[in-house]
């Protein structure tokens, strides 16, 4: 690999990700976490939360259930999922919660999950695409996609598309169905390498994670445009939770892991605080009929310049359809 190639594909993504992280931490040093106000009762509504068994996903599931929603936790670790169900059931008021197996690193599993969900005959009002992995060593999903791109983005892309008919049927004027995509500030440093989305020519864990989170924002905006044109009562928003102390950071290298511990204690948000903007997007009356937003700390915020590139959005959509066989 040439020097320029190394700088461009390894060093720059690494530096961009850490710079973005420092900016978020500075923000969190001087700003309180967004606090949820009273949210409307969600009785009769159904939500799917991917990765809902731990971290922010657990907090989202717990909060939605406490509002009366029927929550389906979709996850790839059955024991963790069943434990989460038990804990939430013990404290949820009127809500129902259950676990359904979903491995986002397998498109086959995504299709099986959707089949199982649809066979329950339940409506679908909220889909929170929350699950994610970060900084994994080079690896592949079952169908051979780079793991960050394949799991964080492509798995959710297929899941959402297969559930879109259910979301469209369940959304009504005044009570829209809502899609919430968990992105990240790292998308600001992300670059879409359209001719090498799987990072085969030069792998960078930092670049791949940031790219997957930018892909989710591009997807959110393009999907919202399609839903608006079609006149459907379904909204699509992206959420940036800030920096939150969860297991997501378990793949940081040794020295970074050591440095992270005290910083996290002081400056990271708790999972409940980090989950608040996603809960807001999924349920708040102010977000009724509001789509196509990037939400940070409970407010609409500008995402990266490239995320608004409609040609790039359309190109990624087309390519993603081809990759997942839609
Ligand atoms: N923690 C942060 O600082 C932070 C910042 C920005 C964005 N995010 C995003 O928030 C989301 C939630 O992360 P978190 O911080 O709660 O981390 P976490 O590690 O606690 O949760 C990740 C969830 O994804 C699930 N998951 C992983 N692989 C899966 C697979 N193959 N199939 C199905 N589910 C799978 C895990 O089981 C877990 O429930 C992620 O998308 C992450 O990228 C987190």
Automatic annotation (TrEMBL):
InterPro entries xrefs: NAD(P)-bd_dom_sf, Sc_DH/Rdtase_CS, SDR_fam
Annotated GO MF terms: oxidoreductase activity
Pfam families in UniProt: adh_short (PF00106)
SUPFAM superfamilies reported for this sequence: NAD(P)-binding Rossmann-fold domains (SSF51735)
Keyword Iron: no
Keyword DNA-binding annotated: no
Family: Belongs to the short-chain dehydrogenases/reductases (SDR) family.
Protein name (record): Uncharacterized protein
Source species: Denticeps clupeoides
High-level lineage: Eukaryota, Metazoa, Chordata, Craniata, Vertebrata
